[in-house]
Design a protein that fits this description.
- The chain is mainly α.
- The protein has helices spanning 13-43, 73-85, 100-115, 146-163, 179-183, 218-222, 234-251, 270-288, 300-304.
- It is 40% helix and 0% strand.
- The termini are far apart.
């Protein structure tokens, strides 16, 4: 007669379950880590470290392609020669009190660097004379020499820095307006428009294409003072909400950045006062400097571009004293 003996299992069912579970977990985790490492290696060539600058906030004057510098060697050689021949400046109308070398450093770092253009964008260097006023390149949009236009824009930045930005506390950032603040590396400021002014990609903004900040008179800012009123008309409410949407998108913040979310009419948050100062500055630009901006209307987005501190704003101590201010 056959004697059948029952075999004793090597592992209990419970132990076997945990062994299989652990093995599967190791495979999944190991595979996940391996995938991440592989992707990291594949994408390494596509990532470009953010360039920083001691001069600017969130902006680098370096050319996008180092092999294609916007400042040409011939222009820099002409500048070096001109500095040697004329250590004291000639025909200076705005940057007064500075020697030629200091002016040249400013022009390279903040004018050429802010627009990413060569010296010949504004100067006629056929004779190597940076002081020349004849044969200058002309701006087609404004119909005046670019050198003349640059002077007017320097005076505009001086005005805005000393009469508006200077009223903000240093805790806001102590930044100052310069060419890069609005131009951001473009010869022509592309963030302002004639007529409509959303300044956002159509698929990312809930603002209508016809939206534009009302900046013609002080009464236009008063249109925003509707919160807490019992009888604002629908048009005023709609405009108020559109402006607030513009603010939040332009600075990349929420309503509570400026407002007491429990009581919007309250003025206890200082950011609300600062925002009003900036609105008045935009209004001042619109009424005073629109001709040199090719009739383009200013907006919050024009400088902020989704950031609390405008990219291209100059850090403390970088702007010449004649154009800037001393932070509080």
């Amino acid at each position: 007669m056959y004697n059948q003996r029952s075999a004793t299992p090597l592992f209990s069912e419970r132990t076997l379950f945990f062994l299989v579970f652990g093995l599967v977990t190791l495979v999944l985790v190991g595979g996940g880590i391996g995938t991440v490492v592989w992707l990291n290696g594949q994408l390494a060539g596509f990532r470009t470290p953010a360039k920083t600058s001691a001069v600017y906030t969130n902006y680098s004057p370096e050319p996008a392609d180092p092999a294609k510098p916007y400042l040409q060697p011939a222009s820099l050689a002409a500048m070096a020669k001109y500095i040697t021949e004329h250590p004291q400046p000639q025909n200076v109308q705005v940057l007064k009190g500075m020697d030629t070398a200091t002016i040249a450093n400013y022009m390279v770092a903040m004018v050429a660097g802010g627009l990413k253009v060569d010296c010949t964008y504004c100067h006629n260097l056929s004779a190597g004379n940076f002081a020349a006023e004849d044969g200058l390149p002309v701006s087609e949009a404004q119909g005046v020499a670019r050198k003349t236009l640059a002077r007017q824009m320097m005076l505009m930045s001086q005005d805005l820095n000393q009469n508006f930005v200077a009223t903000l506390p240093a805790s806001v950032g102590g930044k100052q307006i310069t060419c890069a603040t609005c131009h951001n590396g473009k010869a022509v400021n592309f963030n302002g428009k004639t007529g409509t002014l959303t300044n956002y990609p159509a698929d990312q903004s809930p603002l209508p294409d016809t939206f534009q900040l009302k900046l013609d008179t002080p009464a236009d800012i008063d249109l925003l003072l509707i919160t807490g009123k019992k009888d604002p008309n629908l048009a005023a409410v709609q405009y108020n909400q559109q402006v607030m949407t513009h603010h939040t998108q332009a600075l990349g913040v929420g309503c509570a950045f400026c407002h007491n979310a429990n009581y919007f009419p309250s003025n206890e948050r200082p950011q609300k006062t600062w925002a009003l100062t900036m609105l008045k500055m935009a209004q001042h630009i619109n009424t005073t400097y629109k001709p040199i901006m090719a009739q383009k209307a200013p907006s919050c987005w024009m400088c902020h571009q989704g950031q609390q501190l405008p990219p291209g704003s100059a850090n403390t101590g970088q702007v010449p004293a004649v154009l800037g201010y001393t932070p509080k």
